[in-house]
Amino acid sequence: MNVELSQNFGKIIRELRKEKKLSQEELGFQSNLHRTYIGMIERGEKNITLENIEKLSKGLDVSMKLIFEKLNKIH
């Protein structure tokens, strides 16, 4: 697992979540993911699947493309 990549991805998810004024619990509910899993993603502790990235993007109401563009800028 590329720790730096996971940490950068997590920072982006946290940033987007806070922009939307969502708690981890609210994002988890909207994404159909557990809130503790959201926290682990945001801390870069999980190597997330494309399926779960799609769930997060829908929960955040942003495109997967936007997430990957942000990731590309900081990675």
Account of the protein in words:
This protein has 75 residues and is mainly alpha-helical. The protein has a single domain (3-70), classed as 434 Repressor (Amino-terminal Domain) (Orthogonal Bundle), CATH 1.10.260. 73% of the residues lie in helices and 0% in strands. α1 (3-19) crosses α5 and α2 packs across α4. The relative contact order is 0.21.
| Assembly form of the protein | single chain
Quickly count the helices.
5
The overall number of domains is 1
Helix content: over 70%
CATH domain fold name: 434 Repressor (Amino-terminal Domain)
Low-confidence stretches: none
Q: The biggest beta sheet, please?
A: none
The rounded distance between the terminal residues' Cα atoms is 15 Å
What is the H level of CATH, i.e. the homologous superfamily? lambda repressor-like DNA-binding domains
CATH architecture: Orthogonal Bundle
- Work out the strand percent: under 5%
Strands, count: 0
- How does the helix and strand content classify structurally? mainly alpha
Using only C-alpha atoms, the radius of gyration works out to 11 Å
Organism: Jejuia pallidilutea
GO cellular component, one term: cytosol
GO molecular function, one term: DNA-binding transcription factor activity
Keywords: DNA-binding, Transcription, Transcription regulation
